[in-house]
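Bench notes, afternoon.
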Amino acid sequence: MSGKDLSHIRNFSIIAHIDHGKSTLADRMIQMCGGLDAREMKEQVLDNMDIEKERGITIKSQTVRLKYQAKDGQTYDFNLMDTPGHVDFAYEVSRSLAACEGSLLVVDATQGVEAQTLANVYQAIDNNHEIIVVLNKVDLPSADVEKVKEQIEEVIGIDTSDAVEISAKTGFGVDLVLEAIAQRLPAPKGNSEDTLQALLVDSWYDAYLGVVILIRVVSGTISKGQKVRMMIANAEHVIDNVGVFTPKQEMTGSLHAGQVGFITGSIKQVADCKVGDTITDVKLPCEKPLPGFKPNLPVVFCGLFPVDGDDFDPLKDAIAKLHLNDASFEFEQETSAALGLGFRCGFLGLLHLEIIQERLDREFGLDLITTAPSVVYKIHGKKGDVMELHNPADMPDPVKIECMEEPWIKANIMVPDEYLGSVLDLCSKKRGVQQNMTYVGNRAVVVYRLPLNEVVFDFYDRLKSITSGYASFDWEVDGYEESDLVKVSILVNNEPVDALAIVVHRSQADPRGRALCARLKDLIPRQLFKIAIQAAIGGKVIARETVSAMRKDVTAKCYGGDISRKKKLLEKQKKGKKKMRSFGNVEIPQTAFLAALKMGDG
């Protein structure tokens, strides 16, 4: 295959804010290029998971090859990457962008530029992408095309004179997008005769094929039967299948420079497929690996425990399988006094945590208890040692701690003018520091530094509710800072429940402890004896609630007679309750743990 054949290949991703119509546009393109018959066509073709369809969000980047007959009579191969829009999955976006030369920037003509539009477009610019601006939903009565074009030029600085106006839902203008891709996006560079160098973009587990690896061939050719090496993992494999998605799996036998496709090679070990690795030929290896991607770092940690202790092994297998599909989630085994054996897992954000939890429930039928999410704190000991704290239950004795640092983030919030006051109020309540504020039309772009543990709990939900859903929010981790942090322990009947321990700023400890006790009081079922629920910092109790005892009417059978008979029975009951309280074991239902997660300060 000669180098000129590359001129007919276009690798591009679709980037946009959530709900601006990426997946719908991908559907229309697949339809117009004949990727699927009319009877096979369905909404959100590239969103394979049920959760993606139900929530209407993309979680995993998907790829598809389409054949397009341009107006100049040439046939082009389009490799399309549909990427997620949610901030928790920005990592998926960065991987997809590294495998492409161009991007379609989809902006909703009724909403305009949003926070994640900015974040994703800057990533595309960092990857030197050619960008085509696509204005979607122009058929809606509230669309204001000229205003949005102005906004894109002002905020992002991209020329919009040749922006394509479309309605992905009806298909209006999608043919112009396909033509623009063919004419305006650059062809990939590379030579099929050179040494093999391919980038491992993603990997997932298929019950029939084993591990399926999505690759972008940068140079050389990869073929069935070839022996390849993964350079970072230093593992060798013989390739069984090579193919592309159209979106159906289609075996092609080989992939050449500039192409995107998948390979399988009876790979059993998840660990062998490191995202961002370079694949090369065993006999003729390339000199150095490709730059790959920045490793993504989990920012939110929580414990996952099976409700039934016998489910520990199935949970272990399920987590290992999910980890293959989702390299961005980390886990290690841990034991809890209250909950038994389980795993400490790291996630990219709360939505990511929710999705993983839901997938474990649906795909593997597991009943799980999730502990309160926490972030990674750095603890400086008196002896000069530094440790990372992932689990509040592991916090050392305060006497041994010199100081503690917590992670901060830099947040970009875009909000209509009328809601600005409430947003500034929310950010200052969350200990935020304002860094910048600019205006684009009637919308404010506010830049804040916020402590991550304040954002993890309920910041996103609160932001959406105080702005009627109009605010958009994007963030990145911005280093560590020393802070006055304390561990709040929860005691039920004088027994500490390690799963409910939280680390908070001292100023938040009292309200958070009181709210948690009040919430648990409503959730823990009444017993035949009183239950004390306490929040404590070290040995000092800062909040207490009491679940009153159920009262069995022991005097029901006493008709008339002397009052002393009733007193005798009540006295006997009192002694029994006292005895029960000393031996009584309080079962905390799963709802109580989940409610502890949803703790707002409202």
